[in-house]
Amino acid sequence: MSLRVMKAGDIYRIEGPAKVVVKRGQIYATGVVYTEGQSFTVLRARQLAVKAVADSEVELVLGPGALLERVAPGEEIIDEWERRISGVDPKGVVVVVGMMDVGKSTMTAMLGNKALARGYKVVIIDADVGQNDLGPPTTISLARLTKYVTHLRQLVAEKSLFLQSTSMERIWPRAVAQIAKAVEYAKKTWQPDTIIVNTDGWVLDEEAATFKRRLIERLVPSLIVAIQVENELGPILNGYSNVLVLPPPPHVRTRSREDRKIHREMGYGRYIFPPVELAVSLDKIPLCNLPLFQGIEMGEELKRMLTRAIGVGVLRAYQVGSRVYAVVEGGEWVVRRVGGFQVVGLPIDFEKGLLAGLEDSEGFLVGLGVIKKIYYDRKRAIIYTSSEVERRIGEVKCIRLGLVRLDDNFNEVEKATNILKAEAEQSTT
């Protein structure tokens, strides 16, 4: 713990964990001016720029690994961001877009604080499935903002939607629908004045631009806040007039792919650990996105015929309309047309380690789980999940298989995108 005198206009960069208590004067952080007796925190491994609005004295509590440094004029854009966002009314739906590591989460917090200061009822929606600050990785999460924050991680998700993946590339059409669902839920349930949507950092290719534009068209935001390095957001923003373009902070902490992976793995553990082993009847709580056990199970003769047709041993097979879902020997997925049927062959143990979302009747997440085993003869799944999910199991109406495979320590070991083959065949009929 230390006391520090800050002269008016001084700017400091703090990397947490740290707590700042204003003993005298005024300190600006994340769109808020904190005065005598007020305090704010900087979370571990997060950076925050703060400014003395007046001559001030602060009490600093720096945790392990925390850093504090005074910055020269021009090294931070705290003044420009404050000047630019103070000139807009954040009422309505606000969408924040930009690449990874440009400060989107900080901007979302600033906009939320500004709206709160106006007396608005504020909802934050974090739609960054890879680095979600409100809820688990792979989700879109919602929370009401009721007090000033320096980081979105200080909020706790009140509702989440399971998006199955840690990136939007293969799932973005569903993501558009689910983000819109989150916005509509917030409007209907909480009647906010302001909804701020923090988006993911996928922006640099044509498909990413299509995704962001479809999302903007669906949400019809009152304001788009774009944090742009050069002109990389041009294909997304072209034609829209309600755009505020801001530069990124020059010293945002850039996280490597491995850092992001570790952050997600800690997130899985936080929402599942300590795990309980839960046996679920798939007759009562079916798979949302794979209709196993929902059709007619094929007998031995039909399985032999199917084996000859696809060239792989068939252990179990279920006919669902014009589709056949077969559990097959070996480790390869099979998608093949046989007569008038589309056959999807699922390799034995394909489910082991898959992240899963246990969803309620409205499609919202009750909790995450990891599939350990499906016993086809008993139509039963063994799932590692949290004691909270076990307590709320009566709310679970279906289990959605994800596209991420985890090991016993919740480390990501594979992107299981083959699940989309089965989902695609399901959705095309």
From TrEMBL:
Q: Does the keyword ATP-binding apply?
A: yes
Instruction: List each copy of the Clp1 P-loop domain by range.
Output: 98-272
What InterPro entries is this protein classified in?
Clp1/Grc3, CLP1_P, P-loop_NTPase
- Give the catalytic activity: a 5'-end dephospho-2'-deoxyribonucleoside-DNA + ATP = a 5'-end 5'-phospho-2'-deoxyribonucleoside-DNA + ADP + H(+); a 5'-end dephospho-ribonucleoside-RNA + ATP = a 5'-end 5'-phospho-ribonucleoside-RNA + ADP + H(+)
| Gene3D superfamilies the record matches | P-loop containing nucleotide triphosphate hydrolases (3.40.50.300)
**Pfam families, sorted:** CLP1_P (PF16575)
A Gene Ontology biological process term: RNA processing
Cofactor requirement: a divalent metal cation
Report the EC code(s) recorded for this entry.
2.7.1.78
Q: Any idea what job this protein has?
A: Polynucleotide kinase that can phosphorylate the 5'-hydroxyl groups of both single-stranded RNA (ssRNA) and single-stranded DNA (ssDNA). Exhibits a strong preference for ssRNA.
PANTHER family from the UniProt entry: CLEAVAGE/POLYADENYLATION FACTOR IA SUBUNIT CLP1P (PTHR12755), POLYNUCLEOTIDE 5'-HYDROXYL-KINASE NOL9 (PTHR12755:SF3)
Q: What protein name applies here?
A: polynucleotide 5'-hydroxyl-kinase
Q: Which organism is it from?
A: Pyrobaculum oguniense (strain DSM 13380 / JCM 10595 / TE7)
What lineage, starting at the top, does this entry show? Archaea, Thermoproteota, Thermoprotei, Thermoproteales, Thermoproteaceae
